[in-house]
Amino acid sequence: MTNPTIWDLGEKKNLLVFRRSFHEHTLRMRVVLSQLPLSVCVCLSAILVWLFFPATLDNPLFLAFLLSQALLLGLCIAVPWHKLPFPSFLAIPILDMVSIGFGREGGQDALTGLSVLVVLPVIWLCASGLYPRLAIALSFVGPLAIVWVPLFLRGAVTEQSLTKPLLFPILIVGIGVSVSVLTLSMMRQQRALEEKDEELKEALDASTKQERLLNTVMEALPLGVVAVDGNGHDLLMNRRQRQSHSLATPPDNPDPNEAELLVFDTDRTTPLPADQRPVRRAVLGERFTDQLVWLGSGTDQRAFTASARPMVDDDGKFAGSVVVFNDVTELVNALAAKDDFVANVSHEFRTPLTSILGYVELILDDPHGLDPKYRMQLDIVRRNAERLLTLVSDLLSVRSGQIAIQPHTVDVVELVRSSVTSAEPRAAKAGIRLSMDVPPALEARVDSSRMSQVLDNLVSNAIKYSPDGGDVVVAAWEDQDYVFCRVSDTGMGMTEEEASEVFTKFFRAGGVRNSAIPGVGLGLPISKAIVEAHGGSIELESEPGRGTTFTVKVPA
Q: How far apart are alpha carbons 412 and 486 in whole angstroms?
C-alpha cells in the first residue's frame, strides 16, 4: 500500500472544496468562487487573442481589461472580507462591469461579444440577495453604460446609435430579474426550511428530554413495567421488570418465549395456561387489574399482581398494551399468616363452645329442675353460643375456601319475609322504614339456611349503617333462570375505593371505624362465599351520603 503524494493530497483538497455546499464555505472563499467564472472566461479570451489577434494585446484598453481582472481576482483572494462590512464584496461585480467596458472597447476588433461577459457580474449581484432593487437597476445601468459611454466619448451620439445597442441591456436586465426572483424564492424557501429545521430540532430536544425523563422515572419505579406492541414484541422494559423476567426464566432456557416462562397460578404449583398469562392477555387487548401470579420456582419464587391497559392509535385501533407488575410477596405471606392465625384461633374456640352448648342443653333438658327465669337466660346463652359456633365454622370454611351447602327447593319469598320480619324490631327502634317488593312466590333450589344467613346479614347491615333513619327495601324477582335478591338503603354509603374492598375479610370503612357501629368485617366475605358456593354472584352500588344497594344473583 503506497503513501499518498502531495499531489494526491492537493487533489483531494480541491475536490472537497467543490463538493461542499456554497454556503458552507467561508465568506472569502464564496467571493473567490463567485469571481472565478469571469476570471476563467477572461483567461480564455486572452489566450484566443494571443493566438489569433496578437496585435490586440498592444491596445491599452484591452491591457487595462486584463490587468484589472487579475487585480480584482487578487483582491478577492487577499482581502479579509469577514472583517469588512458584509455587503462590501459587492464592489467587485460593479468594478467587473467597468473592467468589461475596457475589454469591449479594446478588443472589439478581435473578439466580438466580449460585452456579454457582463452577464456574470450581473448574476453575482442578483444572486447575492442583497439590495435586490439596486441589483436590478445596476443590471440595466451597467450594460447600458458599457454600450453608451463610448458613443458619448467619441461624440457619435444619434438616435439610431443610441437605440441600436439598447436590446443588449434590456436582455441583461431580464436575466438579472430572473436570477433575482429565483434567488429571493430560494431564500424564502431556505428560511422556511431553516425555521422548520429549528422546529424539528426543538421537537427533537423536547422528545429527547421527555425520553430521558421517562427512562429515569421508569428506572426509579418500584414496579415492573413492560410495553408490548400488537404482535407481542417488547417495546419498553424497565429494570425491575428485567429482574422479574430473569426470575421467571427457566435455568436451561436463556431465551424463553411467553409460554415457557415459569408463571404459576395462586397455588404456586400449577403453571398458568399461555392464554391466561398477564402479557398474553395484554397482547390480546384485555384490560385487567391485580391478577395474582407467582414467578420463578423454589425458594426464589415471588408473588406479583399484574395490571394491563391497552394502547390505541390515532384511528382507535389496538396498538399494544402496558403491563405493570407489583411484587406483593410480603403482603401475600402476611395475609396467609393472618388467615392461619384466624383459623387456629377459630379452631381453638370450637372445642369450648361445643362444651358450653352441651352442658347448656343438658341443663335445659331437665323440665323440672330449672326456674323459668333461669331457663330464659340459658336460652339466650345457647342462642348466642350457637351463633358464635356458626361464625367460627364459617371462618374455618372461608379459610379453606369451602362453604358446605345443601340445596333444596325453597320459596325465596318466604326467606325474604322471614328476614324482614326478624329485622322489624331493630328497624323500628332505629326509625327506619323497612319494606318488601316481592312476587307472591319465587321458587329456587338453594340452601335455605345459608341464603337466610346472607339475607339476614344484608338487611342487618342496611339497618346498622343507616344511623339517621331512612328507607330499607328488600326486593326479589326471577329473570332468565336466575333469582335476584336486592337490599337497598338510604344510609351512609361508601366511596368507590371502600366499595372495592368491602368483601375483604376484616375490612371496615373509615367512617364506620370512627363510629360506635359494631362489627368485625366478616359478614360480607362470608355472604359472598355462600353466594359463590351456589354458583352465583353478589354486586354492590354505593354513593357516599346516598346509600348502598347489594344485589344477589343465584341460579334458580
A: 12
